Amino acid sequence: MKIFNTLSRSKEEFKPIEEGKVRMYVCGPTVYNYIHIGNARPMIIFDTVRRYFEYKGYEVKYVSNFTDVDDKIIKKAIEDGTDSKTVSERFIEECKKDMEGMNVRPATVHPKATEEIDGMIEMISTLIDKGLAYRAADGTVYYRTRSFKDYGKLSHKNLDDLRSGERELKVTGEDQKEDPLDFVLWKPKKEGEPYWESPWCEGRPGWHIECSVMSKKYLGDQIDIHAGGEDLIFPHHENEIAQSEGASGVTFSNYWMHNAFLNIDNRKMSKSLGNFFTVRDISERYDLQVLRFFMLSAHYRSPLNFSDELMESASNGLDRIRKCAENLAFLIENAKAGDKSGAGLSDAEQTLLADSAAFVTQFETAMEDDFNTADAISAVFELVKFINTNTSGANSAEYLNKLSEKLTTLTDILGIKLGGGEKEMLDSEIEDLIAQRNAARKEKNFARADEIRDELLSKGIVLEDTREGVRWKRA
Ligand code: AMP
Ligand code: ZN
Which residues line ligand 1 (CB under 6 A)? Predict the structure, then answer.
Protein backbone atom coordinates (compact mmCIF):
# COMPACT_ATOMS: atom_id res chain seq x y z
CA MET A 1 0.00 0.00 0.00
CA LYS A 2 1.45 3.33 -1.03
CA ILE A 3 0.85 6.60 0.79
CA PHE A 4 1.98 10.05 -0.28
CA ASN A 5 3.98 11.33 2.66
CA THR A 6 4.19 15.11 2.98
CA LEU A 7 7.50 14.65 4.81
CA SER A 8 9.28 13.14 1.79
CA ARG A 9 6.90 14.57 -0.80
CA SER A 10 6.70 11.15 -2.36
CA LYS A 11 4.64 7.99 -2.31
CA GLU A 12 6.05 5.48 0.15
CA GLU A 13 5.22 1.88 0.90
CA PHE A 14 3.19 1.73 4.12
CA LYS A 15 4.92 -0.15 6.95
CA PRO A 16 3.17 -0.11 10.28
CA ILE A 17 5.13 0.33 13.51
CA GLU A 18 3.42 -2.73 14.92
CA GLU A 19 2.41 -5.60 12.62
CA GLY A 20 -1.33 -5.57 11.87
CA LYS A 21 -1.99 -2.29 13.67
CA VAL A 22 -2.44 1.29 12.56
CA ARG A 23 -2.27 4.21 14.95
CA MET A 24 -3.61 7.36 13.41
CA TYR A 25 -4.40 10.88 14.56
CA VAL A 26 -6.54 13.32 12.61
CA CYS A 27 -6.76 16.98 13.66
CA GLY A 28 -10.39 17.76 14.36
CA PRO A 29 -12.46 20.92 14.23
CA THR A 30 -12.59 23.95 16.49
CA VAL A 31 -16.12 23.81 17.83
CA TYR A 32 -17.69 27.27 17.74
CA ASN A 33 -20.23 26.76 14.98
CA TYR A 34 -21.71 24.03 12.81
CA ILE A 35 -18.95 22.37 10.79
CA HIS A 36 -18.79 23.43 7.16
CA ILE A 37 -18.34 21.08 4.24
CA GLY A 38 -14.65 22.04 4.01
CA ASN A 39 -14.17 20.56 7.49
CA ALA A 40 -16.14 17.55 6.31
CA ARG A 41 -13.56 16.74 3.63
CA PRO A 42 -10.83 15.42 5.99
CA MET A 43 -13.48 13.67 8.09
CA ILE A 44 -14.81 11.73 5.09
CA ILE A 45 -11.40 11.09 3.53
CA PHE A 46 -9.67 9.78 6.64
CA ASP A 47 -12.72 7.80 7.70
CA THR A 48 -12.42 6.06 4.32
CA VAL A 49 -8.70 5.49 4.86
CA ARG A 50 -9.54 3.93 8.22
CA ARG A 51 -12.21 1.72 6.65
CA TYR A 52 -9.78 0.52 3.98
CA PHE A 53 -7.15 -0.42 6.55
CA GLU A 54 -9.78 -2.35 8.46
CA TYR A 55 -10.87 -4.12 5.29
CA LYS A 56 -7.23 -5.18 4.87
CA GLY A 57 -7.35 -6.68 8.35
CA TYR A 58 -5.56 -3.98 10.34
CA GLU A 59 -6.71 -3.01 13.78
CA VAL A 60 -6.99 0.77 13.62
CA LYS A 61 -6.82 3.06 16.61
CA TYR A 62 -8.14 6.38 15.37
CA VAL A 63 -7.90 9.51 17.49
CA SER A 64 -9.45 12.84 16.53
CA ASN A 65 -9.67 15.84 18.82
CA PHE A 66 -12.14 18.60 19.40
CA THR A 67 -10.48 21.97 19.98
CA ASP A 68 -12.72 23.38 22.68
CA VAL A 69 -10.65 26.30 23.95
CA ASP A 70 -9.89 29.00 21.41
CA ASP A 71 -10.39 32.72 20.72
CA LYS A 72 -13.26 32.01 18.32
CA ILE A 73 -15.14 29.98 20.91
CA ILE A 74 -14.65 32.71 23.51
CA LYS A 75 -15.89 35.33 21.06
CA LYS A 76 -18.97 33.27 20.21
CA ALA A 77 -19.70 32.77 23.94
CA ILE A 78 -19.58 36.53 24.51
CA GLU A 79 -21.90 37.14 21.53
CA ASP A 80 -24.36 34.57 22.85
CA GLY A 81 -24.12 35.79 26.45
CA THR A 82 -22.94 32.39 27.64
CA ASP A 83 -19.69 30.60 28.49
CA SER A 84 -17.18 28.75 26.29
CA LYS A 85 -18.10 25.35 27.66
CA THR A 86 -21.76 25.78 26.71
CA VAL A 87 -20.74 26.79 23.18
CA SER A 88 -18.24 23.98 22.67
CA GLU A 89 -20.42 21.24 24.18
CA ARG A 90 -23.29 22.29 21.96
CA PHE A 91 -21.25 22.25 18.77
CA ILE A 92 -19.52 18.98 19.62
CA GLU A 93 -22.97 17.39 19.79
CA GLU A 94 -23.99 19.05 16.51
CA CYS A 95 -20.75 17.89 14.88
CA LYS A 96 -21.40 14.32 15.98
CA LYS A 97 -24.86 14.45 14.38
CA ASP A 98 -23.32 15.67 11.12
CA MET A 99 -20.72 12.91 11.27
CA GLU A 100 -23.43 10.33 11.73
CA GLY A 101 -25.32 11.75 8.74
CA MET A 102 -22.19 11.48 6.59
CA ASN A 103 -21.58 7.96 7.92
CA VAL A 104 -18.27 9.05 9.44
CA ARG A 105 -17.67 6.61 12.26
CA PRO A 106 -16.85 7.99 15.70
CA ALA A 107 -13.12 7.93 16.42
CA THR A 108 -11.80 5.37 18.87
CA VAL A 109 -11.20 8.40 21.12
CA HIS A 110 -12.38 11.99 20.68
CA PRO A 111 -10.33 13.88 23.26
CA LYS A 112 -11.11 17.48 24.14
CA ALA A 113 -8.40 20.05 24.77
CA THR A 114 -9.90 21.29 28.04
CA GLU A 115 -9.72 17.80 29.50
CA GLU A 116 -6.02 17.34 28.69
CA ILE A 117 -4.50 20.40 30.36
CA ASP A 118 -2.41 18.37 32.83
CA GLY A 119 -0.69 16.52 29.99
CA MET A 120 0.00 19.83 28.25
CA ILE A 121 1.59 21.29 31.39
CA GLU A 122 3.73 18.18 31.69
CA MET A 123 4.95 18.33 28.09
CA ILE A 124 5.65 22.07 28.29
CA SER A 125 7.66 21.45 31.50
CA THR A 126 9.69 18.78 29.71
CA LEU A 127 10.41 21.18 26.86
CA ILE A 128 11.53 23.87 29.33
CA ASP A 129 13.77 21.34 31.13
CA LYS A 130 15.35 20.41 27.81
CA GLY A 131 16.05 24.04 26.95
CA LEU A 132 13.56 23.94 24.06
CA ALA A 133 11.12 26.37 25.66
CA TYR A 134 11.26 29.37 28.00
CA ARG A 135 9.01 31.55 30.09
CA ALA A 136 8.92 35.25 29.15
CA ALA A 137 8.46 37.99 31.75
CA ASP A 138 4.66 38.15 31.38
CA GLY A 139 4.27 34.39 31.98
CA THR A 140 3.95 33.39 28.32
CA VAL A 141 5.86 30.20 27.49
CA TYR A 142 7.43 30.08 24.03
CA TYR A 143 8.97 27.27 22.04
CA ARG A 144 12.57 28.09 21.10
CA THR A 145 12.10 27.26 17.45
CA ARG A 146 15.71 27.60 16.32
CA SER A 147 16.89 25.10 18.89
CA PHE A 148 14.92 22.30 17.19
CA LYS A 149 17.27 21.38 14.37
CA ASP A 150 14.67 19.70 12.15
CA TYR A 151 12.28 22.65 12.17
CA GLY A 152 10.83 23.06 8.67
CA LYS A 153 11.23 19.42 7.61
CA LEU A 154 7.52 18.88 7.02
CA SER A 155 6.65 22.11 5.26
CA HIS A 156 10.04 22.17 3.51
CA LYS A 157 10.64 25.69 4.69
CA ASN A 158 13.95 27.21 5.43
CA LEU A 159 14.22 29.08 8.73
CA ASP A 160 15.76 32.17 7.16
CA ASP A 161 12.93 32.49 4.62
CA LEU A 162 10.50 32.22 7.49
CA ARG A 163 12.40 34.91 9.30
CA SER A 164 11.88 37.41 6.50
CA GLY A 165 8.16 36.58 6.33
CA GLU A 166 7.80 36.97 10.09
CA ARG A 167 8.90 40.60 10.04
CA GLU A 168 5.63 41.58 8.47
CA LEU A 169 3.70 39.54 10.98
CA LYS A 170 4.56 41.49 14.13
CA VAL A 171 2.03 40.80 16.84
CA THR A 172 1.66 42.41 20.23
CA GLY A 173 3.79 40.92 22.92
CA GLU A 174 6.23 39.67 20.34
CA ASP A 175 8.97 41.83 21.83
CA GLN A 176 9.03 39.35 24.71
CA LYS A 177 10.16 36.58 22.39
CA GLU A 178 13.80 35.73 22.06
CA ASP A 179 13.23 35.23 18.34
CA PRO A 180 10.26 36.11 16.10
CA LEU A 181 10.06 32.46 15.01
CA ASP A 182 9.25 31.26 18.54
CA PHE A 183 5.66 30.16 19.03
CA VAL A 184 3.35 30.10 22.03
CA LEU A 185 2.93 27.02 24.23
CA TRP A 186 1.12 28.72 27.11
CA LYS A 187 -0.29 32.21 27.44
CA PRO A 188 -1.55 34.35 30.33
CA LYS A 189 -5.29 34.64 30.85
CA LYS A 190 -7.22 37.68 29.76
CA GLU A 191 -10.21 39.13 31.58
CA GLY A 192 -13.30 36.94 31.18
CA GLU A 193 -11.49 34.04 29.53
CA PRO A 194 -11.30 30.47 30.77
CA TYR A 195 -7.97 29.75 32.47
CA TRP A 196 -6.03 27.07 34.34
CA GLU A 197 -3.33 27.16 37.00
CA SER A 198 0.16 26.40 35.76
CA PRO A 199 3.76 26.79 37.00
CA TRP A 200 4.13 29.87 34.74
CA CYS A 201 0.93 31.87 35.12
CA GLU A 202 -2.82 31.43 35.21
CA GLY A 203 -3.61 31.00 31.58
CA ARG A 204 -4.41 28.68 28.73
CA PRO A 205 -2.52 26.58 26.20
CA GLY A 206 -1.48 27.67 22.73
CA TRP A 207 -3.26 25.76 20.00
CA HIS A 208 -0.50 23.41 18.80
CA ILE A 209 0.36 21.72 22.07
CA GLU A 210 -2.98 19.91 22.43
CA CYS A 211 -2.46 17.58 19.46
CA SER A 212 1.07 16.59 20.54
CA VAL A 213 -0.23 15.75 23.99
CA MET A 214 -3.37 13.88 22.96
CA SER A 215 -1.54 11.89 20.33
CA LYS A 216 1.08 10.81 22.89
CA LYS A 217 -1.51 9.98 25.54
CA TYR A 218 -3.79 7.84 23.37
CA LEU A 219 -1.38 6.48 20.76
CA GLY A 220 2.10 6.66 22.28
CA ASP A 221 5.20 8.67 21.36
CA GLN A 222 5.33 7.23 17.84
CA ILE A 223 2.39 6.88 15.51
CA ASP A 224 1.87 5.63 11.97
CA ILE A 225 -0.21 8.38 10.40
CA HIS A 226 -0.97 11.98 11.29
CA ALA A 227 -3.46 13.74 9.07
CA GLY A 228 -5.49 16.86 8.39
CA GLY A 229 -6.16 19.51 5.79
CA GLU A 230 -3.18 21.00 3.96
CA ASP A 231 -3.55 24.35 5.72
CA LEU A 232 -2.33 22.54 8.84
CA ILE A 233 1.10 21.65 7.39
CA PHE A 234 2.43 24.99 8.47
CA PRO A 235 2.59 26.07 11.17
CA HIS A 236 0.37 23.60 13.07
CA HIS A 237 1.93 20.27 12.12
CA GLU A 238 5.43 21.68 11.87
CA ASN A 239 5.02 22.91 15.44
CA GLU A 240 3.55 19.61 16.58
CA ILE A 241 6.69 17.86 15.30
CA ALA A 242 8.92 20.34 17.14
CA GLN A 243 6.98 19.77 20.36
CA SER A 244 6.59 16.00 20.18
CA GLU A 245 10.03 15.13 18.86
CA GLY A 246 11.63 17.79 21.05
CA ALA A 247 10.05 16.19 24.12
CA SER A 248 10.41 12.50 23.21
CA GLY A 249 13.57 12.45 21.09
CA VAL A 250 11.99 9.99 18.62
CA THR A 251 10.15 10.33 15.30
CA PHE A 252 6.59 11.48 15.99
CA SER A 253 4.67 10.24 12.96
CA ASN A 254 5.99 8.09 10.12
CA TYR A 255 3.46 9.29 7.52
CA TRP A 256 1.86 12.72 7.19
CA MET A 257 -1.23 12.88 5.01
CA HIS A 258 -2.88 16.13 3.95
CA ASN A 259 -6.04 16.67 1.97
CA ALA A 260 -6.34 19.56 -0.48
CA PHE A 261 -9.02 22.18 -0.03
CA LEU A 262 -12.64 22.05 -0.81
CA ASN A 263 -13.13 25.29 -2.76
CA ILE A 264 -16.02 27.36 -3.83
CA ASP A 265 -15.54 29.49 -6.93
CA ASN A 266 -11.94 28.29 -6.79
CA ARG A 267 -11.30 29.81 -3.35
CA LYS A 268 -10.88 27.85 -0.16
CA MET A 269 -14.15 27.41 1.66
CA SER A 270 -13.65 28.88 5.11
CA LYS A 271 -15.52 30.48 7.93
CA SER A 272 -13.29 33.52 7.93
CA LEU A 273 -13.91 34.24 4.22
CA GLY A 274 -17.63 33.72 4.79
CA ASN A 275 -17.93 31.57 1.61
CA PHE A 276 -19.10 28.38 3.25
CA PHE A 277 -22.01 25.98 3.50
CA THR A 278 -22.47 24.05 6.69
CA VAL A 279 -23.08 20.31 6.51
CA ARG A 280 -26.46 21.12 8.07
CA ASP A 281 -27.32 23.49 5.16
CA ILE A 282 -26.41 20.80 2.68
CA SER A 283 -28.41 18.16 4.54
CA GLU A 284 -31.55 20.17 3.85
CA ARG A 285 -30.95 19.96 0.12
CA TYR A 286 -29.29 16.60 -0.35
CA ASP A 287 -28.97 13.20 1.23
CA LEU A 288 -25.59 13.43 3.04
CA GLN A 289 -24.56 10.22 1.33
CA VAL A 290 -24.45 12.29 -1.85
CA LEU A 291 -22.07 14.73 -0.14
CA ARG A 292 -19.86 11.82 0.88
CA PHE A 293 -19.93 10.36 -2.62
CA PHE A 294 -19.10 13.78 -4.10
CA MET A 295 -16.10 14.16 -1.76
CA LEU A 296 -14.77 10.75 -2.71
CA SER A 297 -15.20 11.36 -6.42
CA ALA A 298 -11.90 13.31 -6.45
CA HIS A 299 -8.48 12.25 -5.22
CA TYR A 300 -7.93 13.70 -1.75
CA ARG A 301 -4.79 15.59 -2.78
CA SER A 302 -6.58 17.41 -5.60
CA PRO A 303 -8.52 20.59 -4.92
CA LEU A 304 -12.24 20.03 -5.30
CA ASN A 305 -14.65 22.75 -6.31
CA PHE A 306 -18.11 22.57 -4.77
CA SER A 307 -20.99 23.18 -7.17
CA ASP A 308 -24.60 22.09 -7.54
CA GLU A 309 -23.72 20.59 -10.91
CA LEU A 310 -21.12 18.28 -9.37
CA MET A 311 -23.50 17.39 -6.55
CA GLU A 312 -26.15 16.50 -9.14
CA SER A 313 -23.71 14.32 -10.97
CA ALA A 314 -22.71 12.64 -7.68
CA SER A 315 -26.38 12.11 -6.94
CA ASN A 316 -26.95 10.47 -10.33
CA GLY A 317 -23.90 8.25 -9.90
CA LEU A 318 -25.03 7.14 -6.47
CA ASP A 319 -28.52 6.42 -7.81
CA ARG A 320 -27.05 4.14 -10.46
CA ILE A 321 -25.32 2.09 -7.76
CA ARG A 322 -28.40 2.05 -5.55
CA LYS A 323 -30.64 0.92 -8.41
CA CYS A 324 -28.29 -1.93 -9.13
CA ALA A 325 -28.38 -2.98 -5.46
CA GLU A 326 -32.19 -2.73 -5.40
CA ASN A 327 -32.50 -4.85 -8.53
CA LEU A 328 -30.24 -7.45 -7.04
CA ALA A 329 -32.26 -7.51 -3.82
CA PHE A 330 -35.42 -8.00 -5.88
CA LEU A 331 -33.89 -10.82 -7.93
CA ILE A 332 -32.58 -12.48 -4.78
CA GLU A 333 -36.05 -12.46 -3.17
CA ASN A 334 -37.54 -13.98 -6.32
CA ALA A 335 -34.82 -16.58 -6.63
CA LYS A 336 -35.32 -17.60 -3.00
CA ALA A 337 -39.07 -17.89 -3.45
CA GLY A 338 -38.85 -19.70 -6.81
CA ASP A 339 -37.88 -23.24 -7.68
CA LYS A 340 -34.20 -22.25 -7.91
CA SER A 341 -34.01 -21.63 -4.17
CA GLY A 342 -31.82 -24.63 -3.48
CA ALA A 343 -29.86 -24.55 -6.74
CA GLY A 344 -26.09 -24.18 -6.48
CA LEU A 345 -23.90 -22.18 -8.81
CA SER A 346 -24.04 -23.18 -12.45
CA ASP A 347 -20.78 -23.48 -14.38
CA ALA A 348 -21.59 -20.28 -16.23
CA GLU A 349 -22.26 -18.50 -12.94
CA GLN A 350 -19.01 -19.74 -11.53
CA THR A 351 -17.12 -18.32 -14.49
CA LEU A 352 -18.92 -14.99 -14.21
CA LEU A 353 -18.15 -14.75 -10.49
CA ALA A 354 -14.49 -15.40 -11.21
CA ASP A 355 -14.62 -12.62 -13.85
CA SER A 356 -16.24 -10.19 -11.42
CA ALA A 357 -13.29 -10.53 -9.03
CA ALA A 358 -11.36 -8.31 -11.45
CA PHE A 359 -13.38 -5.28 -10.33
CA VAL A 360 -12.51 -5.89 -6.69
CA THR A 361 -8.84 -6.11 -7.66
CA GLN A 362 -9.20 -2.89 -9.65
CA PHE A 363 -10.78 -1.23 -6.63
CA GLU A 364 -7.97 -2.41 -4.33
CA THR A 365 -5.27 -1.33 -6.75
CA ALA A 366 -6.75 2.17 -6.83
CA MET A 367 -7.03 2.38 -3.04
CA GLU A 368 -3.51 1.08 -2.57
CA ASP A 369 -2.18 3.79 -4.81
CA ASP A 370 -2.44 6.54 -2.19
CA PHE A 371 -6.18 6.03 -1.67
CA ASN A 372 -7.30 6.98 -5.14
CA THR A 373 -11.01 6.95 -4.37
CA ALA A 374 -11.84 8.49 -7.76
CA ASP A 375 -10.47 5.41 -9.55
CA ALA A 376 -11.93 3.13 -6.89
CA ILE A 377 -15.37 4.57 -7.69
CA SER A 378 -14.77 3.83 -11.40
CA ALA A 379 -14.19 0.21 -10.42
CA VAL A 380 -17.51 0.21 -8.55
CA PHE A 381 -19.27 1.55 -11.66
CA GLU A 382 -17.71 -1.19 -13.74
CA LEU A 383 -18.92 -3.78 -11.28
CA VAL A 384 -22.40 -2.22 -11.48
CA LYS A 385 -22.34 -2.44 -15.27
CA PHE A 386 -21.20 -6.06 -15.05
CA ILE A 387 -23.99 -6.92 -12.61
CA ASN A 388 -26.62 -5.19 -14.71
CA THR A 389 -25.59 -7.14 -17.80
CA ASN A 390 -25.04 -10.49 -16.16
CA THR A 391 -28.04 -11.00 -13.90
CA SER A 392 -31.60 -12.06 -14.57
CA GLY A 393 -34.50 -14.04 -13.12
CA ALA A 394 -32.77 -17.20 -14.32
CA ASN A 395 -29.88 -16.92 -11.83
CA SER A 396 -29.44 -18.84 -8.60
CA ALA A 397 -29.83 -17.03 -5.28
CA GLU A 398 -26.27 -17.98 -4.38
CA TYR A 399 -24.84 -16.29 -7.46
CA LEU A 400 -26.90 -13.15 -6.92
CA ASN A 401 -25.97 -13.05 -3.25
CA LYS A 402 -22.28 -13.32 -4.02
CA LEU A 403 -22.48 -10.40 -6.44
CA SER A 404 -24.46 -8.39 -3.94
CA GLU A 405 -21.82 -9.07 -1.27
CA LYS A 406 -19.09 -7.86 -3.62
CA LEU A 407 -20.92 -4.63 -4.28
CA THR A 408 -21.63 -3.91 -0.62
CA THR A 409 -18.09 -4.76 0.43
CA LEU A 410 -16.83 -2.02 -1.87
CA THR A 411 -19.47 0.54 -0.97
CA ASP A 412 -18.93 -0.17 2.75
CA ILE A 413 -15.25 0.68 2.35
CA LEU A 414 -16.31 3.98 0.82
CA GLY A 415 -18.78 4.39 3.69
CA ILE A 416 -21.67 4.73 1.26
CA LYS A 417 -24.99 3.36 2.45
CA LEU A 418 -26.98 1.71 -0.30
CA GLY A 419 -30.27 1.41 1.53
CA GLY A 420 -32.98 3.74 0.21
CA GLY A 421 -32.54 6.99 -1.67
CA GLU A 422 -34.60 8.94 0.79
CA LYS A 423 -33.14 10.36 3.96
CA GLU A 424 -33.02 7.81 6.73
CA MET A 425 -33.66 9.17 10.23
CA LEU A 426 -30.49 9.45 12.27
CA ASP A 427 -30.26 7.82 15.69
CA SER A 428 -29.71 11.26 17.20
CA GLU A 429 -32.85 12.64 15.51
CA ILE A 430 -34.87 9.72 16.85
CA GLU A 431 -33.48 10.22 20.33
CA ASP A 432 -34.28 13.94 20.20
CA LEU A 433 -37.90 13.13 19.36
CA ILE A 434 -38.10 10.55 22.14
CA ALA A 435 -36.81 13.16 24.60
CA GLN A 436 -39.48 15.58 23.37
CA ARG A 437 -42.12 12.86 23.80
CA ASN A 438 -40.94 12.17 27.37
CA ALA A 439 -41.15 15.87 28.13
CA ALA A 440 -44.66 16.06 26.65
CA ARG A 441 -45.74 13.11 28.79
CA LYS A 442 -44.32 14.72 31.90
CA GLU A 443 -46.42 17.78 31.17
CA LYS A 444 -49.40 15.45 30.64
CA ASN A 445 -49.61 16.62 27.03
CA PHE A 446 -50.58 13.15 25.81
CA ALA A 447 -51.88 14.40 22.48
CA ARG A 448 -48.39 15.70 21.61
CA ALA A 449 -46.77 12.51 22.94
CA ASP A 450 -48.98 10.39 20.69
CA GLU A 451 -48.32 12.66 17.76
CA ILE A 452 -44.56 12.08 18.17
CA ARG A 453 -45.07 8.31 18.48
CA ASP A 454 -47.11 8.35 15.23
CA GLU A 455 -44.57 10.52 13.46
CA LEU A 456 -41.81 8.07 14.37
CA LEU A 457 -43.97 5.11 13.36
CA SER A 458 -44.58 6.66 9.95
CA LYS A 459 -40.80 6.65 9.49
CA GLY A 460 -40.53 3.04 10.50
CA ILE A 461 -39.42 3.61 14.10
CA VAL A 462 -41.25 1.57 16.72
CA LEU A 463 -41.29 2.66 20.36
CA GLU A 464 -41.67 0.34 23.27
CA ASP A 465 -42.39 1.69 26.74
CA THR A 466 -40.61 -0.41 29.34
CA ARG A 467 -39.99 -0.04 33.04
CA GLU A 468 -36.44 1.04 32.29
CA GLY A 469 -37.65 3.71 29.88
CA VAL A 470 -38.39 3.97 26.20
CA ARG A 471 -36.74 1.54 23.79
CA TRP A 472 -36.86 1.94 20.04
CA LYS A 473 -36.13 -0.09 16.98
CA ARG A 474 -36.34 0.25 13.24
CA ALA A 475 -39.28 -1.74 11.92
P1 AMP B 1 -10.51 23.98 11.67
O2 AMP B 1 -11.80 23.87 12.42
O3 AMP B 1 -10.37 25.20 10.83
O4 AMP B 1 -9.31 23.76 12.58
O5 AMP B 1 -10.45 22.79 10.61
C6 AMP B 1 -10.67 21.43 10.90
C7 AMP B 1 -10.15 20.60 9.76
O8 AMP B 1 -10.80 20.96 8.53
C9 AMP B 1 -8.65 20.77 9.48
O10 AMP B 1 -8.10 19.51 9.14
C11 AMP B 1 -8.62 21.71 8.29
O12 AMP B 1 -7.45 21.58 7.54
C13 AMP B 1 -9.82 21.22 7.51
N14 AMP B 1 -10.37 22.23 6.57
C15 AMP B 1 -10.82 23.48 6.88
N16 AMP B 1 -11.27 24.09 5.77
C17 AMP B 1 -11.11 23.22 4.72
C18 AMP B 1 -11.40 23.27 3.32
N19 AMP B 1 -11.98 24.33 2.74
N20 AMP B 1 -11.10 22.18 2.58
C21 AMP B 1 -10.56 21.09 3.14
N22 AMP B 1 -10.25 20.97 4.45
C23 AMP B 1 -10.53 22.03 5.24
ZN1 ZN C 1 -3.81 19.23 15.39
Answer: 27, 29-30, 38-39, 41-42, 228-229, 231-232, 259, 261-262, 268-270
